[in-house]
TrEMBL record:
Subcellular location: Cytoplasm
Keyword Hydrolase annotated: no
Protein name, as recorded: Triosephosphate isomerase
Keyword annotations of the record: Cytoplasm, Gluconeogenesis, Glycolysis, Isomerase
Quaternary structure annotation from Swiss-Prot or TrEMBL: Homodimer.
Coiled coil: none
GO molecular function, one term: triose-phosphate isomerase activity
Natural source organism: Meridianimarinicoccus aquatilis
Pathway: Carbohydrate biosynthesis; gluconeogenesis; Carbohydrate degradation; glycolysis; D-glyceraldehyde 3-phosphate from glycerone phosphate: step 1/1; Carbohydrate metabolism; erythritol degradation
EC class of the enzyme, as a word: isomerase
Function: Involved in the gluconeogenesis. Catalyzes stereospecifically the conversion of dihydroxyacetone phosphate (DHAP) to D-glyceraldehyde-3-phosphate (G3P).
Family: Belongs to the triosephosphate isomerase family.
Gene Ontology process terms (BP): gluconeogenesis; glyceraldehyde-3-phosphate biosynthetic process; glycerol catabolic process; glycolytic process
InterPro entries membership: Aldolase_TIM (IPR013785), TIM_sf (IPR035990), TrioseP_Isoase_bac/euk (IPR022896), Triosephosphate_isomerase (IPR000652), Triosephosphate_isomerase_AS (IPR020861)
């Protein structure tokens, strides 16, 4: 049985003042079946970790370098994230793929680096609008899965997030049928490559998830949770999404 996961990606948002949202979230979110993860900017990981203390809320990074250390100005290694108190790290987010030219091979190496540091890797995949409209969605997903997920994949340390690029921050979402089609496809593709290991991998949907649409999305087969951007910045919004997942 896969545990549900509500993951928030703060992206390049938030400073000391926004830690108040975490205090609020800890007060308002009580879950039995749902894991909660917040991935703040790296500058907040250590303080957020201290704030959360023993509460059941995990902290993650938003990216890591493939190397353990070295001359890579501005980068952060997976080990550094772990040292700061992170237990997870997002790799291959479409904003990294677009803004930093990250390829499937780089994402794959980052997933391996994450596992090497004892982190859970949240590996992101998803098609662009052109690819969706060109009928290429499933081909793109198959290629990204094959290229981005290392052969050593273990379900306990791997989460896959399906994020259609055109749905991120736009207020647009795929139909429930489209989400279901892709999530079922991902499970099936993982099954071909990883056999029974595929069953334990949690699959998140990401892209304009809000309290108002969360319940219907969480009703779709093979959706084990969400990777939430904008709506994770406010405790009142994110706790609504968490509640919808817990009730699903
Ligand atoms: O990592 C999160 C996703 O990019 C979704 O962002 P969004 O919820 O603001 O659309």
């Amino acid at each position: 049985m896969r545990r549900k996961l509500a993951a928030g990606n703060w992206k390049m948002n938030g400073g000391s003042a926004e830690l108040a949202e975490i205090r609020e979230l800890l007060k308002s979110s009580s879950t039995a079946q749902t894991d909660i993860l917040i991935c703040p900017p790296a500058t907040l990981i250590e303080r957020m970790r201290a704030l959360v203390a023993d509460a059941p809320l995990s902290i993650g990074g938003q990216d890591c370098h493939v190397a353990k250390s070295g001359a890579h100005t501005g980068d952060i290694s997976a080990g550094m994230l772990a040292d700061a108190g992170a237990s997870h790290v997002i790799v291959g987010h479409s904003e990294r793929r677009q803004d930093h030219g990250e390829t499937d091979a780089i994402v794959r190496a980052k997933a391996t680096a994450s596992w090497g540091a004892g982190l859970i890797a949240v590996i992101c995949i998803g098609e662009t609008l052109d690819e969706r409209e060109g009928g290429k969605t499933l081909d793109v997903i198959a290629t990204q899965l094959d290229g981005s997920v290392p052969d050593e994949m273990a379900p306990e340390t791997t989460v896959i997030a399906y994020e259609p690029v055109w749905a991120i921050g736009t207020g647009l979402t795929p139909t429930l049928e489209q989400i279901g089609e892709v999530h079922d496809f991902i499970r099936s593709e993982l099954g071909k490559k990883f056999a029974e290991r595929a069953d334990g991998v949690r699959l998140l949907y990401g892209g304009s998830v809000k309290p108002s649409n969360a319940a219907e999305i969480f009703g779709v087969s093979n959706v084990d949770g969400a990777l939430v951007g904008g709506a994770s910045l406010k405790a009142s919004d994110f706790s609504g999404i968490i509640a919808a997942l817990e009730a699903s």
